[in-house]
Amino acid sequence: MRRYALRPGHFDDLQRVFQPWFIAGQEHAGMRLGGQFRDRNDPDRFVWFRGFASMDQRREALESFYSGPLWQAHRDAANATMIDSDDVLLLRPTEPDHRPGVSVATGQPGPTVDPTWVVAQVWSLPTADLEAWLTTAGHPILQRALGVPVAMWRTEPAENTFPRLPVRDGRFVVSLTVFRDGEQWSMAAARLDDDPGWRRIADRLSDAGATSKVSHLQPTATSGHPVPTAAPPHPAVAG
């Protein structure tokens, strides 16, 4: 999960490089790109996901792309739009898996943005036990209260195999949910606040020193944003 802070007003400038060049170029190098989003509350923030089959394959794919001609040709234009590109989480599926499927507005990349409301929540957790508890006991309660499928990942504990691209230290759980619009999300959030099971979980997390951040995301035109469904296996590592 990569979260870029961009220079004010430069989101579209980055997309003019990212969409025609970097999506196909990274997939050709062996990565799989998932959701690509603009933060609805921070229009100068770009949030996106890419996946890998394994940590070794991640190293090979990143080495191939970042030493290849596409990145060399367009990196200056991309980097000129950015203030910070190091807010990166290295993730793996939870146990049991709560993986996403993939959808786009028309089934093909194009100018029509899928009008769904995507909500990402990132928990920063102090212990491995708390991470495991949230992704097992907490997940079904969260999903029941929200009334929609919840995709979820946790920190990949392996060493970063491509240190040229740093990742954040710590323990994290990330969830993604997809709603029809902001009104549907607001109704789901109210149910969550009123749910006694979720209140107990939230209290335990707070007492343990866990923190969380919720982001409301708008898919870009080329986003294959995650929608949790019964789907074929997806890459095991994201970052």
Explain what the structure shows.
This protein has 239 residues and is an alpha+beta fold. It has a single domain, classed as Alpha-Beta Plaits. The chain is built from six helices and twelve strands. Strands 1, 2, 3, 4, 5, 7, 8, 9, 10 and 12 form a ten-stranded antiparallel sheet that branches. Strands 6-11 form a two-stranded antiparallel ribbon. Helix 1 packs antiparallel against helix 3 and helix 4 runs antiparallel to helix 6. The longest helix is centred in the middle third of the chain and has 19 residues. The termini are close together. About 9% of the residues have low confidence.
Short structural description:
The chain is of the alpha+beta class and 239 residues long. Helices cover 36% and strands 32% of the residues. Helix 1 (11-28) runs antiparallel to helix 3 (69-79) and helix 4 (128-146) runs antiparallel to helix 6 (196-207).
Notable characteristics:
239 residues, alpha+beta, ten-stranded antiparallel β-sheet, two-stranded antiparallel sheet, 6 helices, NIPSNAP family protein, NIPSNAP, Dimeric_a/b-barrel
